[in-house]
Amino acid sequence: MSVKVDNLRVYYRTMRGDVQAVDGVSFSIADGEIMGLAGESGCGKSTLGKSLIRMDARMRRIDGRVELDDQELPLDDTRAMNKHRFKQISLVPQYAMSALTPTRKVGKLMEELLESRGVRFATIRPELERRLTLVGLSPKVLGMYPIELSGGMKQRTVMVLSTLLNPALLIADEITSALDVSTQKAVAETLVEFRDRGYVKSMMVITHDLAILYQVADSILVMYAGKLAEKAPAEVIIRSPLHPYTQLLISSLPEVGVTYEEQKLTGIPGRPPALLDPPTGCRFRDRCPFAFDKCVEEPPFLEVEPGHHVACWKVF
Amino acid sequence: MLALDQVTKVYKVGTFGGKQLTAVRGVSFEVQPGEVVSLIGESGSGKSTVGRMILRLTPVTEGSISFDGVDVAGLKRGQVKGYYREIQGVFQDPFSSYNPIFKADRVFSMIRSAYFSQLGKDDWRRKLESSLEAVSLEPAYVLNKYPHQLSGGQLQRLLIARALLLDIKYLVADEIISMLDASTRIDVLNLLGELKARGLGVLFITHDLSLGHYISDTTMILRKGVLVERGPTERVFANPQHPYTQMLLESVPQLHTKWSGGRSPRPADTEGDDGVVPELVEVEPGHFAVN
Prior knowledge:
The structure holds 2 protein chains of 2 kinds. By secondary structure, chain A is an alpha/beta fold.
C-alpha cells in the first residue's frame, strides 16, 4: 500500500472562522495506481492535494494522518516535510507557465534546484536528457528561456523535472485545464507513460474534467463540499455510478455526438454549500432529488462492492 | 444577417509596433437569425479577435463586416448606439466582467440610463423581470446582490439578461461557459438553445468541440487565423475533411470511449504562412474545407 490517508481534516483559518475544506477524508492509493480526484471548484480537491505536499500558512490539520510506504508524513511541519518533497512526493502545479523562473534558462534553473537537494546535476543530466526526448522535447530546451517555449512544452518540461528523482507519489493539479485539446492529450499520455516506465509509483491527478480522468486514471475519487462522495475504478464511475451527485454530474456532460435538439441535458440545480459553516448531514442533500429523512444524518463512506466506496444513504 | 467578408486583422506588436502579427486572415461567414454558429479554435487561433471585431472593440484591417447590408466599420457615432441594440457580447470570465464594489444589478441601471431613460419605473421593472425570466433567474434572488454573492452561472446569465434588455438580434458568446462548473455550465448552454428558438442568432466562440457539437447548427474550425473547415455541424463532425479537424476530433477526451493508441501527428504548421489565404472548397452540400 503506497499512500494511505486516514480521516484527514484540513481547515483554512479565516477571520470569520474555519473553512472546512477537507473534512474527514480516508482513502488509499496502491502502487502503480493513477487515482483521479474530481470535483467542482471549491470542493476541496486542490486543498487535499496541497496538504499532502505543502500546507500554506492559512491551512491547519485538525485531525488525521497520512502514510507513505508505511511511514507517517509530518504534514504540519514544513521543515520536516522538506526531506520528503521532490524525492518522495512531488507536484506538477497547475500553472506550469509561471512555475519556471522567467529570468533563468531552463537548464540553469534545474541545476540550481537539484544541487540544492544534494543531487549532482552532471550525474543526472544524461537521464534528464533521455526523459526530455521521451516526452518529445529536444535537450536544447535546457539552454532556452521559458519564454521561448509554448505552454504545452513548459508543462512537459515541468513534468520531467518534477519526476526526475522518481518520487513515490506525484500530485498533478489541474495540469491539463489550461491547454489546448491536442496538447492536453500529449500531456495526459505522458502521465501514463511515466507510470508505466516506473518513474512514478503512484499518482493523484486532480481535475474537474471527468473525461480526461476516464482516459488516464485507474480509479476516480469524487469529492463534494469537502467530503468524499464516491470512489471506484474509472470504468465503474463513468458507466455505473451510485452516488446521486456523480450520476447527475456525468449526465450533465455533453459529449461529441450529443445535440441539444435530440438529447437535452440538464444541470444540477442549486450550488454547493459554503464550507465556512457547512450544513449537518449529507452535504448534497439540498440539491439531491432522492433526499429523504435519513439524509439529515451524515452518511459514512462505505465499501458497497469490492473497490467501490460510496457515501449515500440511498445506496446502503 | 451578420456577414463577414474576407476579414483580416493585423496587430502591430513588439517595441514601437515594429512587427506585425496577422491574427485573422481572410475569414468569411454569415450568421442568420435563429442560428447558432460555433467558431472553434485553439488558443491563439484568432477566434476571440473575430468576436471583438464584430463588436467593434477592435478595428478591422482589411475586409468588411456588414449587418443587414450596412458596413459596421462606417457607422457614425449616433448609429453605433443603434448597432449595440442589435448585437451584444458576453465574455469568458463572469467574475471580472463585474465591478466588485458595486452591486451586480448596476449593469441593468447603466443600460436604463443609456437607452431607456424615458421609460417609467413600472414599465422598466416589467421589462427587467421578463428578461430575467428568459434566463431563468428569480428577480428577488439576484437583484440587490454583490457579484461575490452570486455564482458564476448566475453572473453569466445576468450578463445575457442585460443583453436581452436591448432586444438584441445577435449575441457574440465568447467562451461564456469555460469558467463555469460542470453542473451549471449545461444550463447556460441550454439557455442559448432557448434563445435560438426565440429567433436570436448566436456566434458561439469556444475551444471545446463537444460543447460546439451540442449546441450549434453550423461549425467553423479556425486555425491560425484561417477558416479551414465550415459546414453543418453534423457533417463536419461525421465527415471531417481537413487533417487539422480530424486531429482535433481524435484528441477530444470522451466519456465513454478511450483515446486510440499512438500519438496523432500535428499537421504541417505552415499553411497560410505565405500570406496566401487557402481557398475553401465545397466537398458536399454546404460543407466547405481547405483542400
